């Protein structure tokens, strides 16, 4: 009999597919508005703005160093799922501009929508034993080992990244961006509880 606390391969596949699609849509919103975000995605966005390189390839490369750390601390299953999620997100952000465009998107509402969509994507990944790499791996490790909420860890990292972003984009853009990132992390902090949801 299957363990009811363990997701099946099919459940993991749909969870990762859902998360990658929602995360890619969030990146579409973010880059359309010229906003930034935190974590490794934020680092990739800033690099893409400065260099003109596409977000997808940059995000994929930025995450490479974290796979070994993820394997060492979280295991092969987590690392493989995370690699697949990152690869799917990277690929989707390269093709989605041909599928989705915005005639008008208010900056404030776009920041909120980005936060909600991205928060839902990360929750799905966390609940299926994966992440989008980078600081997300570190955040999950700290939560599992020390009980520190993953959302709070990521919020602290984001604060540093946004300070750097001030040298690249203007203050209003950073403030709207911080709103979106705060919603992402608050969504995770409030909803991701191992004592309430234990399936992996």
From TrEMBL:
Q: Which top-level group of life is the source organism from?
A: Bacteria
* Family annotation (Pfam families): YitT_membrane
* Primary residence: membrane
TM segments?
15-35, 41-70, 82-102, 146-168, 174-191
- Give the location in the cell: Cell membrane
For this protein, the record's InterPro entries field holds:
UPF0750_membrane, YitT
Signal peptide as annotated in the record: none
Q: Which GO terms describe its cellular component?
A: plasma membrane
Topology of this chain in the membrane = Multi-pass membrane protein
Q: Which UniProt keywords apply?
A: Cell membrane, Membrane, Transmembrane, Transmembrane helix
Q: Membrane: is it a keyword of this entry?
A: yes
What protein name is recorded for this chain? YitT family protein
């Amino acid at each position: 009999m299957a363990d009811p606390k363990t997701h099946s391969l099919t459940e993991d596949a749909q969870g990762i597919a859902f998360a990658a699609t929602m995360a890619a849509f969030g990146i579409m919103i973010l880059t359309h508005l010229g906003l930034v975000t935190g974590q490794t995605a934020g680092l990739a966005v800033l690099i893409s703005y400065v260099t003109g390189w596409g977000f997808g390839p940059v995000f994929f490369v930025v995450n490479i160093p974290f796979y070994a750390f993820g394997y060492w601390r979280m295991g092969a299953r987590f690392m493989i799922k995370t690699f697949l999620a990152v690869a799917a997100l990277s690929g989707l952000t390269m093709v989605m501009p041909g599928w989705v465009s915005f005639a008008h998107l208010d900056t404030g509402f776009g920041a909120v929508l980005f936060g909600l969509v991205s928060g839902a994507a990360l929750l799905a990944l966390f609940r299926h034993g994966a992440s989008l790499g980078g600081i997300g791996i570190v955040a999950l490790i700290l939560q599992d080992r020390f009980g520190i909420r993953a959302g709070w860890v990521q919020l602290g990292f984001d604060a540093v990244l946004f300070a750097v972003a001030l040298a690249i984009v203007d203050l209003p853009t950073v403030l709207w961006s911080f709103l979106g990132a705060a919603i992402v992390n608050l969504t995770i902090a409030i909803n991701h509880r191992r004592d309430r949801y234990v399936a992996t």
